[in-house]
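Hey, I'm writing a tutorial for new members on how sequence and structure tokens pair up, and I'd like a real worked example in the thread rather than a made-up one. If someone can provide the structure for the chain below, I'll link this post from the tutorial.
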Amino acid sequence: MKLLVLLAGLVGLIPSTSSLCAIQGCDKWWSAGAKNNVSITGACAVMFDENCCKASKTFYIVQREEEGKLCGTASSFNPFSSCVGPRLKDDIESLVVMPGCTLEVWDKGSGLAKAKEEEAKSWNAGNYKDSVDRYDRNKLVFSASGDIHIIEEINDDFDDMDEDIESYRCHCSKGLIFRPQGLKPTG
């Protein structure tokens, strides 16, 4: 009985992933220099292969108005593949979206292509496809307004999409770019 109480007490001491993000989270990554890095602040979003935006691990900076399929182990070696970035297919665990931007992610490599097919038919067809994808838990959409939007652990609230993202699209409001002191018009 004493051993059981001791084990229960020890399990309580093991930190959860959420508390680990409090120690080494996305806000720490942002404050440590990302907010002053124009290649990040001028982009649309950043996708990480680890929880808590661990920049020492693999990550990908998504440019404004960029879309595509993420590379996987096999596709990254295929010279005819249209995939982009490092090997992040089915490995995204956290992301940050820049102010004025919206990041859409799908759990299938064909998700973006199928959405674009429907959007080409009509606005209504595209809207219907968007609704179906979200309802079926095949798509997530994150928008940022005023400040960065941080998703530290996709598995916390979107477990079905954790390590399951294959395609993406990112758009940003025209004429705005994030600077450490806030949104400023470009041009």
